[in-house]
Amino acid sequence: MTFNVLLLVPTGINAAIGGYAGDALPVARAIATIADNVITHPNVLNGASLYWSMPNVLYVEGYALDRMAKGDWGLRPVRSNRIGVILDRGIESDLEIRHRQAIAAAQATLGLNITDVLVTDQPLGVELRSGDSGATWGTIANLDSLLRAAEKLIKVSKVEVIAVVARFPDDSDSEALQNYRQGKGVDALAGAEAVISHAIVREFAIPCAHAPALQPLAIDPSVSPRAAAEELGYTFLPCVLVGLSRAPKIITSRDLLRSEDLTAENVSAIVTPYSACGGAGLLALNPHVPTIFVKENQTALNVTSEMLDLNGIQVENYWEAIGVLTALKAGINPQSLRSTFC
């Protein structure tokens, strides 16, 4: 029996670990050494020009992850995917060249199978929003243009996954951006990125991830290490292409499931921030799956396990979470490892 861990760090909620440029990737790497499979979303694994490809870590967009957790969809591990890329018509020519060079480099240096690149027929018109809690989201003025491009890539180019590069507003002087670069603020882009990927996955049931197109920022020697991955180049696209290259195939019909496919029934444990417990996937699985709530990973939300009457084990940090996972994999009651058990 395999031991499969669902690692959750929701995007756009100012998570202390996982709210920046791939800074939850070390957590995923550590858990991957004790789990047969780790199911997690791009927010955990994307580090702009930095990435760490792991064969037993499944790169699953948030909407697809929720549908899997609710028992609607399955996930089929793959060896490789044909990748399609959508570029926003609103991207300036010099910035578009930078992204096309990143695509060419991924083909030449990493050997990725990037089948086609399309430019949308209209600028997507991304706008950013944030709430009083600090969580972020966004709107897409021409979402239909994005979906037309995705449909063409799927039907004509026969791609299996889609990367989207949308032009996001530059706001280099904003206090929110300065706080983010200093490791003290929310990622203002993350919520809008989720809107883009959710739309494609919901419409076509195909893996999708997004990389924002932005003009380079002025050099700041005081940038936090947690945000520094986004300072290294002209594009955030490399990690997205690598993640999508092996993103699992989405199986929308239970009649088509194979023995190797992962479903809600195959999830052995969940690891999630203590204050971000309102996600649909977590709520669907929690009554049946051991859940570990990590207190140190504070977020802008205040939705705790007690508020929702969820069962599970509260731990202080990911060190403790990994210890609990090790006990669960061994079939040991984690409480028996403590002096207060007897």
Q: What summary fits the major beta sheet?
A: 6 strands, parallel
Which radius of gyration do the C-alpha atoms yield?
20 Å
Whole-number total of structural domains: 2
Based on Cα principal axes, name the global outline.
Answer: globular
Percentage of residues assigned to helices: 25-40%
Number of strands: 14
Mean pLDDT level:
92
Secondary structure class reads alpha/beta
The helix/strand series, from N terminus to C terminus, equals: EHEHEHEEHEEEHEHHEHEEHEEH
CATH architecture of the largest domain: 3-Layer(aba) Sandwich
Q: Which stretches of 5+ consecutive residues score pLDDT under 50?
A: none
> CATH class of the largest domain, anyone?
Alpha Beta
Cα distance spanning the termini: 30 Å
Within the CATH hierarchy, at the fold level, what is the topology of the largest domain?
Rossmann fold
User: What count of helical segments does DSSP give?
Assistant: 10
Q: Give the assembly state of these chains.
A: single chain
How big a fraction of the residues is strand? 15-25%
Across the major sheet, the strand order is 3-2-1-12-13-14
